[in-house]
Design a protein that fits this description.
single chain, six-stranded antiparallel beta sheet, 13 helices, 45 strands, globular
Amino acid sequence: MFRRLIHSVVFATVLSLLHLPALAATSIIEDGNRGRMSLDGTWDVIGVNGIIPQFPAPPASADWKTIDVPHDSAEPYLINKGAGPYTNGVVENAVGKDGKYLRNENAVAWFKRSFKTPAAKDIADRRIILYFHGLAYRSDVYLNGKHLGTSLQCLVPNSYDITDHLKPNQDNELLVGLTERDGIVDPQTQVALTPTSGVRAGIYGRVELQFLPTIRLDDVFVQTFVADKQFVLELTLLNKSDRDQTVTPMATVFDNEGVPSCELEDQSVTVKAGQTKVITLKKDWIADHLWSPEIPYLYNVRVQLRQKDQPVDMVQIPFGFREFTIKGTDFYLNGNKTRLLRISHLTYIPADVEKALTGDIRSGTMREKSGRPVNSVRFHLGFNNEHQIRACDQLGFMAIPESGWYHVKEYNERGREKFLPNVLEYMERWVKLYRNHPSIVMWSLTNEHFWGRTGDVEMAIGKQVAQRVMQTDPTRPIQGDAEVTWNGTLPVINIHYPEGTAGDVRNVYPNSCLVIPNDLYWLKKGKLNTQAWRAEFVWDRPLVIGEYWDFGGDPDKKSSYSGDAIYDWERWRFDKVKKSPDSPYIDVVRKSTDVYRLQGVAGLNPWSGQQEDIMPTRGTRALDFHPNFFAGEDATRKMIIFNESATSLVYPNLQCRIIVDGRTVWQKEVRVSGEAHNIQAVDVPIEVPQVSKPTKATFTAMMRFWAGVRTIKWENVTPKPSTSCHALISRISSAKALSSLTHTARPPRRSQHWACTFKALRKSLTKP
């Protein structure tokens, strides 16, 4: 029975995505006690003058055109002004300083279609819900001339109970009036009334009729607790009948082979007519397979309401058993310390399943980026595509959805009473929509919204938003990108672009610009940090550097760590300087990331470079960059060892050599820790050989372990002849900073080999 159910659900999903013409308007896809009928396809559309839709719409004889639903944009009938799908400039693009709208055209359009449903007897005893998966921005919905409602919520689904307004087995006319963002701007207070970021105007989501039982599961919240070994279901029961209903809730968990793994059942519960009731099913149980980026194992839970041993409603939800928590300044997944090696994904197109897997994520697809070495993704600036979140569930990305509420100037204090209720409603509906996805480990409430504005007015708003999200989902931490902590309200510190102001040396000597590597060690745990751009915080909780090192600005300020090469416009023109592994700028991004990881930053999201190069999961790199050696003396060089995987390294060590003319003149093996989820700094002792004349030499530190090695080299190190008792190996002659990743021949079975070659900057060679 279970396998047949699974197949029917998958089949229904495929049909709805493909919009097959074989599905007639009266076709209902049945799934247990529920059914659905798609209203996607070809609709009629017409643009009209004004800001708000004025009913009635133009007559059938008017110049109506056709449009496919859903669509990414309703242009040319609704034309966006300003920043495309994003929010900045909403008010100034809609309303002048005199409080008058700036345009009267291309801001309103009507959409309509006709449909039939089966005869009344075939849909009796069920409630019919008109469900819109995405309408933007302000929407007014009419059915057969009856106004069903107005909504400003354009980033979450909207639905209407049309049971009493539907004409079974007859033509029904559905009419939707939509506005551009002008329609959600209040001209009096000049404020945006609701979050709107991430989509363009139009019907961007699927439209369907849902045929639901009168007593049903209105919401199911799946909660898993690894430490307490507990499984919890919070069920919201809705009784839309005219009499009290008594039901028995039951739930069964199935593994990915369809085998039952856990069962929950509660006593019968009575829900009064027209009311809702929230109950909890709870059981001491931990799954055999925990969800993680390494093994993104998914279960299914089938929840039923039964009367007289017969199911009256049933839903099935995929989930992963996992727990994401905070301890001190670190994140923990299933009790194991983890670092968010994060990438940002800007999306507004409601991609289908295939695009969700192959869609661009900053120079790569989700499938390509999964685990290489990225383990988390931030859905940035508003639109959170559920297909892509499902892809995260399956591929093993830890996901951080971001709300569509940002740009504080669009939400001024004067209009607080008008916009805040809509923002709070949006936050609650947004979290409920996605909170059963195991990949989601954290909610990001906004991006660069308040920034350094931490006055009483701003923080009172922020506190209400944070409280609403935490009440809706108490199982996940919250953050705001670049929002620091909202005066301690947020359990995660998030800052952007600290390189703009951080650095002890350059702050003491302002004309020195940024000094590498010295100025990278500015973070202080447990103490007040004041050097981050727009941020002041005590590092007493996890710190995420949500964006850092985005190339731009005056090249003079970069010459202190990138040398004169940064002025080579022909070589570093356009975006190459932000991506190329041999870029002097990217060399600094690597060094910054290494130091941040060593210091214990809990989340990193570099804005330049390739993630495989910038933050490898396993390997070794240098923390000292000066090649000043005295011949015949002992020296040390500090290396950093990465193992951010869930697997401990077996027999890990560094094999260190000095090579002259292809001949090894000194070597030493240094034992290192192979602990999983660990980063360590190691001082490598070096016995520098005697030389009698200038000789080119290379120091190599090779990380070896069972199943892999990773190599660091310093090249072009030239020893000078001995003077008195000692000889000085001169500085690197090249002023260019180069770094490249090359693969050598595969070593013996079950081993891997990586070789990293570095040429350091002359100006970066002073020992810190």
